[in-house]
Amino acid sequence: MPLFVPLPAAVNYGRLMITRCLTAILVSAALQAVSTAPSIAADPNLLARCWPATALPASDGERKPRRHDARRDPAIPAIQLPAASSIPRALRGAVRRVKLPPGKKLVALTLDMCEQRGEISGYDGPVIDALRANGVRATIFAGGKWMLSHPERAQQILADPRLEIGNHGWAHRNVRGLSGHDLLQEILGPQAAFQSIRAELSQRACVAGSDHTLQPRLALYRFPFGACRAEALDALADNGMLAIQWDVSTGDSSKAETTKGIVAALLNEVKPGSIVLAHANGRGYRTAEALAIAIPKLKARGYDFVTVSELLAAGELVISPTCYDRRPGDTDRYDNLFASRLRPAPPPAAHKDATRVRSPFSE
Question: Which end of the chain is less congested by CB atoms within 10 angstroms, N or C?
Answer without folding.
Answer: N
